[in-house]
Amino acid sequence: MKFHSQRSESVSQSQPDAPQNLYAAREPVFPRRVSGKFRNMKWVIMAVTLGIYYLTPWIRWDRGANLPDQAVLVDLANRRFYFFWIEIWPHEFYFVAGLLVMAGLGLFLFTSALGRVWCGYACPQTVWTDLFILVERWIEGDRNARLRLHRQKKWDAKKLRLRLTKFVLWFLIALATGGAWVFYFTDAPQLAVDLVTMNAHPIAYSTMLILTATTFFFGGIAREQICIYACPWPRIQAAMMDEDTLTIGYRHWRGEPRGKLKPHKKKKPAAAAATSDAPVIAEVEAPKGDCIDCMACVNVCPMGIDIRDGQQMECITCGLCIDACDDVMAKIGKPRGLIDYLALTDETAEQAGKEPKSVWKHIFRPRTILYTTLWSLVGIALVVALFIRADIELTVAPVRNPVYVTLSDGSIRNTYDVRLRNKNGDDRPFKISIKGHPTLRLQLEGTPYDTVDVPADTMSLQRVYVVAPKGSEPALSERVDLRIWVEDISNGDRAYKDTLFNGKGN
Asked: How far apart are the two ends of the chain, measured CA to CA in Å?
């Protein structure tokens, strides 16, 4: 965003009372192509992340005849989340909450150590924007060609053809993005057939339409504006960073004062000047600082900023300015690293002529160690919880309207709704029993037996009655402790819940 410092002369003269426009119109950013280690790293990360996103719904995983065979599936209809061999039920949402906590701590950790590396390399907005810019460069040319096309007022056949081709390819990428997303929520091969044959649910089409539109707009039209205005992370990242955080910066003490490489005429000897028509030899006048003000770092920046102006909210630390500057430094015979990953403490040390801290000392410090410890503890807790959870579970809900019923023979009966969860891939017989006062008896609604069959991967509701004989201690007491047990007869797994038996009281 740029501010106009003053009104134009014509406006101030002809309309002295006209309202002042404080904002300049947005100029689209057309970054120049650059090569280097950070650009290569971004290509690799883009390929890996896009590959994971587009291909994951098509991976198969055999869970048995009664369960879906899609490796990663968010089954909203049956309220399940499948991730390869892991199955998450609705009451196990704490696993999802734990993963979100780990993601947040991981973001804090990487930001504290290396600045906005997530934004610069792996954020979906960055990845899809890189892909859209790649398509744009392939069709319209590099930076200068795209600038000329943008500033061309006349829409001739060439401009129309280039823009139409670009928009069509952007739309296809956006459509594939929306299509890949809906594949995570139902069987991908079947949904693909339904989408093509127009037999899919309207929600699938509407979701694809929304994601296609947002991907097209965010990655192709808005680009850097999403990072600047829509994303909250640039505004809170400062809380995660300190003077030891490694982030991209400009070594101004080495680069200033800036100066361009300017040729100047070399004086000839007087005799040679009088007799020779040879061309004048040019020599290069070296600037005082290493920065030759070539603007390469600005031209490659996807956010359109000048890193030489210092740390800015818009900077996503993608490293492309480092690649561009290092390339220029190599060409003019200067040391690399004029723009580099550095910390504020390095700046002070280097200006004093001292050696900066090593990278590992910047990364491993109390703050990052704390984030790593918390992240590891949450991860370990989730792994332990995952492996110790039982394949059978139950919940017990006493029916308290009424609290108890007096039967015709004077005995007291309590009613409980027991929900049995069978997390196995096949039907299992569950035996229900109670532990408490020896006079209590168990009855199951709908069967004379103490065993019920629970279908595979489902939750079954079973009403249970517990009866205390007339005159017994539980019948005369206000409440008695009671434990309801469930046992999987096929493998001996057991689970229980504690509750209370209510009697008449004294």
From this structure: 79
Q: How many CB atoms lie within 10 A of CB 373?
A: 11
Cα–Cα distance measured from residue 204 to residue 193, given in angstroms and rounded to the nearest whole number: 12
How much is the mean pLDDT over the chain? 86
Q: Are 87 and 80 in contact (CB under 8 A)?
A: yes
Distance between CA atoms of residues 21 and 17, nearest Å: 12
Say if strands 262-265 and 86-88 run parallel, antiparallel, or are unpaired: unpaired
Instruction: Please say whether the dihedral angle defined by the alpha carbons of residues 195, 198, 202 and 208, taken in this order, is positive or negative.
Output: positive
Strand partners, 429: 453
Say what angle helices 37-55 and 157-182 make with each other, to 10 degrees.
50
Identify any residues that bridge with 431 across adjacent strands, giving them in sequence order: 451, 487
Using the structure block, give the residue that is written with the tokens 């394949």: 391
Joined tokens for residue 482: 């009671």
Beta bridge partners of 444: 447, 464
Q: How far apart are CA 318 and CA 159, in angstroms?
A: 31
What is the average pLDDT across 152-173?
Answer: 94
pLDDT of residue 273: 44
Question: Taking the alpha carbons of 421, 426, 429, 435 in that order, is the dihedral positive or negative?
Answer: negative
| Per-residue tokens: 197 | 């044959």
The overall pTM is greater than 0.90? no
Model confidence band, residue 19 (pLDDT cutoffs 50, 70, 90): low
Per-residue 3-state assignment (H helix, E strand, C coil) for 161-194: HHHHHHHHHHHHHHHHHHHHHHHHHCCHHHHHHH
How many Cβ atoms sit within 10 Å of the Cβ of residue 480?
A: 21
Q: Which amino acid is at 130?
A: D
Say which amino acid occupies 113.
A
Q: Say whether 446 sits in a helix, a strand or coil.
A: coil
DSSP letters of 114-139? HSSHIIIII-HHHHHHHHHHHHHHHH
C-beta of residue 1 within 8 angstroms of C-beta of residue 23: yes
Cis peptide, bond prior to residue 189, ω within 30 of zero: no
The rounded Cα 492 to chain-centroid distance in angstroms is 42
Least confident range of 126-140, 232-246, 479-493 = 232-246
